[in-house]
């Protein structure tokens, strides 16, 4: 049956970005260094790595944290090497292009824009007593520019990164000191931007970054990893409680990576493995969405060799009171899993029924509708799709124009599936922010040629180019979808 795709009034349409992939300006306005600043570019074949120096001067290059950090010796210090390219430093320079970019987004009719604040731009080491005024001013300017177009912010407080100092000094989120630093940082954001920002995300893809490099943890074995997670749960809940108090009507989520997984076969062993693998994600959503550790946590922690999580007596109450208001997630793809496979939050085996992008990401729009239903059935709180999109090689003509019909197809199919979940299955959904409206640097590979945008940015994998912005074919297509609030899908 061909149901209408028109979405409810007030549906939030927008795009999503992350500071270290988009913003650049790494040595402007007193910004401190963050964990991704030492990450080189890479590709699907050649994983990104960090550059670090041992006390004897020798260089080690641990593989990118996003993939699975190698163990990094505690005495290793990060170092910049002259012959390496570090994409976060300038990214695609939103720092100097924000007016132009916001105008382009407004031109599509966005009423919301999701961006992350760079923690080390506000607290360069994470430990200053006072925030960096110049850093706050940059985001003031961004939010005020958005207001001209009636575009609301959706602020990610922490997107896979932290001030380098906190990572090195405390072994990142394994220390409760980092909870205090985070809450102080969040409070600063609430006090400065709360009058103009209602929607917040405490963390990005918390279930994917868990205890790996982006959380500042060097030896990401089970024990440290799950301790880091617990500390992040407490930090998030404290921020939610504080945000509710300081900003009347504020709405808090955390973003979960929910790219789907299917059992490879109906063999009971594969089904059971699938259940356990799903729990690798539910663990995060249940604790933060329902406010307590589920019973199955004991088995899961034991399986990951976690002897004991350190919890303070007040933590249970904090988790209960700091529950999320809505469940935000990213959805890009789905994969299959079978007995004996490793535990993955994102990734896994491919699915013989699905086509894949050039980066091997299976394309599965119905999986989005499935996931929206599954999450809502379980947590019974509104959904917010805060990342979805297609990384592809775009061929620009001499005027930098790209005919990206493949991206239009991908988005049309995913948005239609989303509309069906809302209109047919009655899943409440606040909005959709597409990753990423303006081309930016890929997180997993550090490439520029893995493009997502409605707008082409003239820059190559090594950062060369004019940075000129040019709308692609999908730009006008999306504009029309938003104009009709989905009817044109
Ligand atoms: C999500 C992240 O994992 O996926 C983003 O929140 C990221 O930061 C996005 O960019 C797409 O992944 P990639 O590796 O193609 O950039």
Automatic annotation (TrEMBL):
InterPro entries named in the record: GH (IPR017853), Glyco_hydro_1 (IPR001360), Glyco_hydro_1_AS (IPR018120)
Active site: 387
SUPFAM superfamilies: (Trans)glycosidases
Listed Gene3D superfamilies: Glycosidases (3.20.20.80)
Key words of the record: Glycosidase, Hydrolase
Family indicated by similarity: Belongs to the glycosyl hydrolase 1 family.
Name of the protein in its database record: 6-phospho-beta-glucosidase
Source lineage: Bacteria, Bacillati, Bacillota, Bacilli, Lactobacillales
């Amino acid at each position: 049956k061909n149901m209408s795709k028109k979405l409810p009034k007030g549906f939030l349409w927008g795009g999503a970005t992350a500071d270290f992939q988009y913003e650049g300006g790494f040595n402007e306005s007193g910004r401190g260094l963050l964990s991704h600043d030492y990450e080189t570019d890479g590709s699907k074949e050649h994983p990104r790595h960090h550059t670090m120096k041992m006390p004897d001067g020798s260089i080690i290059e641990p593989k990118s944290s996003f993939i699975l950090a190698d163990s990094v010796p505690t005495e290793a210090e990060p170092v910049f090497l002259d012959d390496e390219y570090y994409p976060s430093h300038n990214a695609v320079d939103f720092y100097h292009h924000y007016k132009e970019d916001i105008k382009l987004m407004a031109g599509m009719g966005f009423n919301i824009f999701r961006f992350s604040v760079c923690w080390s731009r506000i607290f360069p080491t994470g430990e200053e007593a006072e925030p960096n005024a110049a850093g706050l001013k940059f985001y003031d300017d961004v939010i005020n520019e958005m207001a001209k177009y009636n575009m609301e912010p959706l602020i990610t407080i922490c997107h896979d990164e932290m001030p380098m100092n906190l990572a090195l000094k405390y072994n990142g989120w394994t220390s409760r000191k980092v909870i205090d630093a985070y809450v102080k940082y969040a409070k600063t954001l609430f006090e400065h931007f709360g009058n103009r920002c209602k929607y917040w995300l405490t963390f990005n893809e918390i279930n994917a970054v868990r205890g790996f490099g982006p959380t500042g943890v060097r030896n990401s074995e089970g024990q440290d990893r799950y301790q880091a997670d617990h500390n992040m749960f407490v930090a998030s809940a404290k921020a939610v409680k504080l945000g509710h108090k300081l900003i009347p009507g504020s709405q808090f989520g955390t973003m979960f990576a929910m790219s789907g997984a299917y059992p490879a076969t109906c063999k009971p062993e594969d089904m059971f493995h699938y259940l356990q693998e799903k729990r690798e994600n539910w663990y995060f959503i249940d604790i933060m969405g329902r406010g307590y550790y589920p019973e199955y946590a004991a088995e899961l922690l034991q399986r990951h060799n976690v002897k004991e999580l350190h919890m303070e007596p007040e933590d249970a109450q904090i988790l209960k009171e700091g529950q999320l208001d809505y469940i935000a997630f990213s959805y890009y793809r789905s994969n299959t899993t079978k007995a004996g496979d490793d535990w993955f939050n994102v990734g896994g085996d491919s699915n013989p029924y699905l086509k894949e992008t050039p980066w091997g990401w299976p394309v599965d729009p119905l999986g989005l509708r499935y996931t929206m239903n599954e999450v809502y059935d379980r947590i019974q709180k509104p959904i917010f799709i805060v990342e979805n999109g297609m990384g592809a090689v775009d061929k620009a003509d001499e005027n930098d124009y790209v005919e990206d019909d493949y991206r239009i197809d991908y988005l049309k199919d995913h948005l239609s599936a989303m509309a069906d979940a809302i209109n047919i299955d009655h899943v409440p959904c606040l909005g959709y922010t597409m990753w990423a409206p303006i081309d930016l640097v890929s997180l997993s590979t550090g490439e520029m040629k893995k493009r997502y945008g409605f707008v082409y940015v003239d820059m190559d994998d090594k950062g060369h180019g004019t940075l000129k912005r040019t709308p692609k074919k999908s730009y006008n297509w999306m504009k029309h979808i938003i104009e009709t609030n989905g009817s044109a899908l």
